[in-house]
Amino acid sequence: MSARTKGLWMVIIAATMWGLSGTAAQWVFQQKHVGTEWLVCVRMMISGICLLAFASFRGVPLFHIWRERNSRLLLILFSFVGMLGVQYTYFLSIAYGNAAAATLLQYLAPIYIVLYFFIRERKHPSVSIWGALMLAICGTFLLLTNGKIGALSISFPAFLWGVVSGVLLAFYTICSAKLLKKWNSLIIVGWAMVIGGVTIIPAVDSLFAPFVTLDFQTMIVISFIVICGTLLAFLLFVESIRHLSPTESSILSSVEPLSAIVASVLFLHVSFGFFQTVGSLLIIATVILLGKQKMASPS
After folding, report:
1. What's the pLDDT score for residue 294?
2. Which of 161-165, 211-215, 255-259 is predicted with the least confidence, judged by mean pLDDT?
3. Which of 232, 270, 272, 288 lies 20 to 30 angstroms, CA to CA, from 71?
4. What SS3 string covers the chain?
């Protein structure tokens, strides 16, 4: 398996896990009334500590990244704005609205990335990038609305936090690409999650008390969100950028809403309409298009 193929599979699996965890988070927020800040804090702290422990077990130095000023500052910025920012604003959008609308708004990120590189490099993106971008956006829209704009009726806070999460996801993708040029992905994601988790602790009423009141089913769902939807998903996504460009990784992660729709059909018995089927095909076409193209990673 080539490095590029590995990158494609990494981002697809990560996006699938994100999609499933987003649906799970909506259930936890709305059915079990778990606090947004608490869930973000717990999932980041546990995942970050596990990643750093695994890195240490593999013999990866944990503190070398802190010795270089530029890397240290970039990691801190990535932790606050990228890692914590993306997770917190996305979950706020879900809590105020729903996972479908939050996902759609977050996946405007490829547009911000393309515009960023267009402004920075002062040249037009390739036809393949624009084509994949349009397919991803159209596919995501159809998947989440089934062709009905009115289906996206959400509160202003849900809309605002969803847009902010998209901007921060673009920053997350670009910033992590810079760090990956020099440092192991375990170290980057691990430290970023620990720092982000510690930062949000003051906003949590009680860190340990909710564990006592949660039932077994809720604990299983939260464990899935932490392990699969956080630890593995973020690690795979960041690692994929080592083999793909930030733009490709961001566009391919549009598989996330597809997994969320499939999960809703299978577990929540939600109907799957004609336009949602078309949207699924467009997203699959995005994966195929990018898989056949060899695009240089912007630097």
Report:
1. 47
2. 255-259
3. 232
4. CCHHHHHHHHHHHHHHHHHHHHHHHHHHHHHCCCCHHHHHHHHHHHHHHHHHHHHHHCCCCCCHHHCCHHHHHHHHHHHHHHHHHHHHHHHHHHHHCCHHHHHHHHCCHHHHHHHHHHHHHCCCCCHHHHHHHHHHHHHHHHHHHCCCHHHHCCCHHHHHHHHHHHHHHHHHHHHHHHHHCCCCHHHHHHHHHHHHHHHHHHHCCCCCHHHHHCCHHHHHHHHHHHHHHHHHHHHHHHHHCCCCCHHHHHHHCCHHHHHHHHHHHHHHCCCCCHHHHHHHHHHHHHHHHHHHCCCCCCC
Residue 139 confidence (pLDDT) above 70: yes
Report yes or no: 19 and 255 within 8 Å, Cβ to Cβ. yes
pTM of the full structure: 0.77
Give the chain's mean pLDDT.
81
How far is residue 108's CA from residue 164's CA, in Å, rounded to a whole number?
Answer: 10
Identity at 90, one-letter amino acid code? Y
What is the percent of the chain where pLDDT is above 70?
Answer: 86
